[in-house]
Amino acid sequence: MTPPVVLTIAGSDSGGGAGIQADLKTFAALGAFGTSVITAITAQNTLGVTAIHPVPADIVAAQLDAVLSDLPVAAVKVGMISDPAVAKVIASRVDDLPNLVVDPVLVATAGSRLGEAAVVGVLLAYPCVVTPNRHEAGALLGRRVETTEEMISAAAELAARGPRAVVVTGSELALDVLHWDGKTTLLRGEPVATANNHGSGCTFSSAIAVRLAAGDPVPVAVAAAKEYVNRGLRGGATWELGAGPGPLDHFGWSV
Description:
Layout: E1 5-13, H1 19-29, E2 33-45, E3 48-54, H2 57-68, E4 73-78, H3 84-92, E5 100-102, H4 117-120, E6 129-130, H5 134-141, H6 148-159, E7 165-168, E8 175-180, E9 183-188, H7 200-213, H8 218-235
Parallel strand pairs: 1-2, 1-4, 4-5, 5-6, 6-7
Antiparallel strand pairs: 2-3, 7-8, 8-9
């Protein structure tokens, strides 16, 4: 049986834990055929980002057109965008990007700035599923988002800008907030005691895209993605890869 095609538009992580690399691992692990459009090349590892080379907007457009003109893309995940021209390229083709999931990557796990809220915010006007962690939600709204009540308020406020759904993540209690179809749902999970969470946001948004490509409604896709990330965190909890926050176990090698 032919697998669904899922596209990631994001930056490359040379350390392999986040970005394009985490997205493609997630697609493969969940049974999708992964394609990619690279928006930036980063020099990074578990300790942080040491260099960023943005890919010119015309090359991003050429990659995007090459994939869309030949392959039946069923869902799209957008990650790191730092160039307004690249955001404009994506927005101009939004009608050809089904089941769009936007992960507003602004700061890497190790603290390095990767994107700007004003650039990523352009895409919120389109019918996508947006997956900011609470700090990214705060940056998009221009205020702090820390408590559960603030996450609930942020999800509703971001949803009012036009996206199909908003999931605010990032609680140490493994409590995420989904705002969809005018309703707010609290998604509770089991916290995982690990520092190895590099790429968890990328993985979460990519897993949602795969489930949407398979035909799941948004709440089902989000719940399945949350469980997948939890398994990945558990699986990689004791890994010793690098001196900083390590990656998830995308393929269940350790679970």
